[in-house]
Amino acid sequence: MTGLVSAERGIGGTALADALPEIVVVVFAAVTHLADPWFLFALLAVGYWFADDRFAGSPRRAGATAIAVVTCAYAAVAVAKAGFAVPRPPGATGPADVPTWLPVLLSGWYEGQVLSDGFGFPSGHATGGAAAYGALALAYDRLWTLRRRAVAAVAVAVAVAASRVVIEVHYAVDVIAGLLLGAAVVAGALALAGDPRLRAGGNAAADAVAAPSADDPTAALDPTLAFVLAAAVSAVAAGIAVAGGHTGEVVEAGIGIATGVGGAVGWRFVDGDEPPVPVRVAVPPLAVTGALWVGAYALADSLVVTLAATTVAVVAVVALPALADGRVGGTGNAV
């Protein structure tokens, strides 16, 4: 795919950022956190563990499927970035123009936000944001109305996409492609998970509006195939990255493989009808899995350690509702 997307991809963030007040750029630098991978997976894990039937008829199935959707989104980004292999805008490589009025403690944070390495097309933040908030809007179908959930999801995803252009780490075409890719992944992964609203020949919007609350579309969700697809696509991305000599993308693809495998394995312990995880039970695993996740990135020079830490962390996150409910060793999805 190399050469299909130009390194100079048109409108970037330089002119826009220069035209905006510094305080606006700083605010957008904070907005971009809403689609940081760590934030999205933490948000999805919280929903998966703690949501009850006020959010979805089958909140564990809804939550696990949302995690699988985002895992698929990052796998798609890994393939595209390794394949197109085009750089970010020049402003992403530094030096950072840090506002002089920012406190010293925030200067380092701001510099970390506006500097970024790796390839630029498509935007991982735009793709992940569209996938995560789109999946949440569809999976948690008892919260608000479909219209309100859709408006909120679009607003957050677009704000994140805009932030990436404003802080000059992506061109506009990168984030537009990311939004479209994220939306496509939501539709494809939910259909793969068995969402009846996205069945062949069906009308997803009409079904979602017309379905009475007693008719629970989330009861049919099974994220296994979506997790497996994410692992397979990530393996393809790893192959492309290895062939191109893109070390950073190999690591990202490896984490995608581990996340997909870990999600599929973890879900085998879960029936899907477990109650919310008690907070007192969730805190220790949250600390352990968080440490494993951070360690996976910190030890990126050792791919084996990174893959092992990521797999264990994801298995623990997905299996926790069954562990908390005392169901591991019982029926689960494995029988």
From TrEMBL:
The chain crosses the membrane at residues 23-50, 62-80, 119-138, 173-193, 225-244, 250-270, 277-297, 303-324. The keyword Transmembrane applies. Keywords: Membrane, Transmembrane, Transmembrane helix. Pfam families: PAP2. The keyword Transmembrane helix applies. Residues 65-190 form the Phosphatidic acid phosphatase type 2/haloperoxidase domain. InterPro entries: PAP2/HPO, PAP2/HPO_sf. It comes from the Archaea. This is Phosphoesterase. It comes from Halorubrum halodurans.
